[in-house]
Write a structure and sequence with these properties.
Chains A, B: Keywords: Metal-binding, Molybdenum, Oxidoreductase. Two copies of one chain form a homodimer. By secondary structure, chain A is α+β, with helices and mostly antiparallel strands. Chain A contains eight helices and 23 strands. The first copy, chain A, folds into two domains: 217 residues, Sulfite Oxidase, Chain A, domain 2 (Alpha-Beta Complex), CATH 3.90.420; 123 residues, Immunoglobulin-like (Sandwich). Chain A has a five-stranded mixed beta sheet. In chain A, strands 5, 6, 9, 10 and 11 form a five-stranded antiparallel beta sheet that branches. In chain A, strands 18-17-21-22-23 form a five-stranded antiparallel beta sheet, with no helix packed on it. The first copy, chain A, starts with a helix and ends with a strand.
């Protein structure tokens, strides 16, 4: 957005009242705006004191900013997944109260005093740690995204869910504090035959996944804090495994046991689930790393353009399980022309990145797309490119380019353009 | 902590039960630990579903992790300040629900639809912005600490408050999303005579502070999001001013007006308050930048050592209004010998930093101190060094070194050692 365009647009907000259009809202201000010239209620009375909020909550005016589920998505009477309201957020940190949750046995409520972590299998000394034991090891702090392998899964069959909260909301980005898993494994002593680990959850589903030892010794964390405070119950309180860049269900929550073995276990969640059936009947398996991906969060179906033509801020998020996101391209015309977005905010390895693109909207229909480039040189593909390789059976690992169609009224909807 | 020490310590946790000491807690395990060998309640029943928590909250087991006030600190029937529970947090992000709050007229509850920001005074075009108008300007994302100038103020007269939550808890560190103030001022056009700005709050106290134009054009933000979501009411919802590195009350909350003038206004909060009366009767004024400071958060009076002798993790936070913190020193013997702490987590300009020091506690009394070095070469002074220069009248700007005494039982208390 040029200085001129901003100036011309906001001249309209001059107190003189000359401007009939302020940010697109029609407010014929023959007189100065009473909302600023008259005393407002909150200026006249002592507000609520601090004692009322020992643990603070959002304003009542933000009550619509919540995690939501998709009723028809899960058969259970109780839904087992909800979605992060990406269109209401900004920056790269997902607040703990809004991090999407997915579980296979409900939210376990664990007494931290009775919490234990066992390391057994191919080790010199099987060990059991209390929560206090874990806090006696050196800690590290890292921000990582967690994306469910099924994020955008419904979109394989075409545009279905009308909002980025539902198409891309199975992701969050959190600053974790935890102990490198390597230190705990060294404590037990891995036998030479040990090549894989099997983390197990303490919830009713006893979630398990096979993880190669190399990854476990590389950057995995046994985490007990998220964004500064204790893990939330739905995120694995008191302890979860952090597996940077890899699909979400490997980040075992309510972590109770880590078994060391000489080969993968081929359990349910890595065979019948979280695998991709290809056209030839073969299945892609152990596709752990999340490929580079991006989505425009504003404008989007849940966040239309309400201010009419003129200066408009487009923003979105991008991430890669293989590194950082040095570049995101955006298009307003369905891919005919692309422009480079502006990145803003910290760029961490395997963490969410924020991009912006400011433009003067002429009020004509838009076909919005974003395309992420990661630090390995990988470029986010179109959905058609993915279908060409993986066919039509897939549910998981859809990192294809998302399209939003915006009409003259600024209303956005989920569409697909052939590519 | 050496590998040997860790190994010898945790051998005690072997399932064999050989170890009577697990992390210092006496648990004579002739038999394996039932907490890990027996089925626990949370493994046997379906947990709560996602629908119950559209906006998530901490575990019921974390109910003690809250902001607290000091009843005798404020005369009002309603306290006007509470403190961040630093001893319960880790990393560098302060979760929104636990960010300390200080206000002069209670928490204003503003209707975002009726929100307005006026820029007037020495400008070419006085302007009024709605919240939607502000969101049409380019945004940036930055993490900054906010410290109240009165943080540690009670400690000028010696060790008084028994816990880092109360001695140092008027600080938080948040990732903000906002519009550079410079862009809004350029929009209005600053007249040549304009040298200062006066931000004004929309709360009942109409808080105002004089800020030099150079700072306003440098790195100030008009922020509407904190840690990804909308500002909290007690943090200025829907819009606050962010004044990186400068004392907290300049970060005007519920921002309603910015006046441009040719000189400072000398209002109440920069004359009778937030100034330091020196021995000669003169007062230090406009001491905006917060000097480098640090505090050990664990162990501390609210967080004693409970595991007895052996491997112990010491941690704390450090910050500087003038840059980053490349180095923190810690001492276990009241300053006789110093060791360099390990920094972990992102290092941002004018942001909180996290440090750790792992050591084998021999069970003897400790005198714990931390000493921050900032990127300008400034070294955090002792309280006595500050008193020598500023005398005994001060309340504000105490960045002196804090001492915790730990006894043989691991109990910590706030003390002072002459230096």
């Amino acid at each position: 957005m040029t200085d001129t365009s901003r100036r011309s647009f906001l001249r309209g907000a001059a107190i003189s009242g000359a401007g009939a259009l302020v940010g697109g809202r029609v407010a014929a201000q023959a007189a100065p705006d009473p909302a600023i010239t008259e005393l407002q209620p909150w200026q006249q009375y002592l507000g609520e004191g601090v004692d009322a909020r020992p643990y603070g909550m959002p304003s009542e005016h933000e009550a619509h900013v919540v995690r939501r589920d998709v009723p028809w998505l899960t058969a259970d009477p109780v839904s087992s997944v909800n979605f992060t309201p990406l269109h209401e957020l900004d920056g790269i940190i997902t607040p703990n109260g809004l991090c999407f949750e997915r579980h296979h046995g409900g939210i376990a409520e664990i007494d931290p005093g009775a919490y234990r972590l066992m390391i057994n299998g191919l080790v010199d000394t099987p060990l059991v740690f209390t929560l206090d034991d874990l806090k006696r090891f050196p800690r590290e702090n890292h921000a990582y995204f967690l994306e469910c392998a099924a994020n955008s899964g419904m979109e394989w069959r075409g545009a279905q869910l009308n909002g980025c909260q539902f198409t891309h909301g199975m992701i969050h980005n959190v600053m974790y504090t935890g102990v490198p898993l390597r230190l705990l494994l060294e404590e037990a002593g891995i036998k030479t035959a040990g090549k894989w680990i099997l983390p197990e959850g303490a919830d009713a589903s006893a979630m398990t996944r096979s993880i190669p030892l190399e990854k476990a010794l590389d950057d995995c964390l046994v985490a007990f804090k998220m964004n500064g405070e204790a893990l939330r119950p739905e995120q694995g309180y008191p302890v979860r495994l952090v597996v940077p860049g890899w699909e979400g269900n490997m980040w075992v929550k309510w972590l109770r046991r880590i078994e060391i073995g000489d080969q993968p276990w081929h359990h349910r969640e890595e065979t019948s689930k979280y695998t991709d059936l290809l056209p030839d009947g073969q299945a892609r398996r152990f596709t752990w790393e999340m490929d580079a991906k991006s989505v425009i969060t504003n404008p989007s179906p849940q966040a239309p353009i309400t201010h009419g033509p003129g200066p408009t801020v487009l923003t979105g998020i991008a991430w890669s399980g293989r590194g950082t996101i040095p570049r995101v391209d955006v298009t307003l015309d369905g891919g005919a022309t692309w422009a480079r977005a502006r990145m803003s905010g910290p760029s961490f390895d395997k963490s969410m990145h924020r991009f912006y693109y400011e433009f003067d909207w002429d009020g004509r229909p838009l076909l919005l797309q974003s395309r992420a480039h990661d630090s390995t040189g990988y470029v986010q593909p179109t959905k058609d490119m993915l279908r060409e390789v993986r066919g039509e059976n897939s549910i998981y690992h859809n990192n294809g380019i998302q399209t939003w169609a915006v009409n003259e009224q600024g209303v956005a909807e989920n569409v697909e353009v052939s590519s």
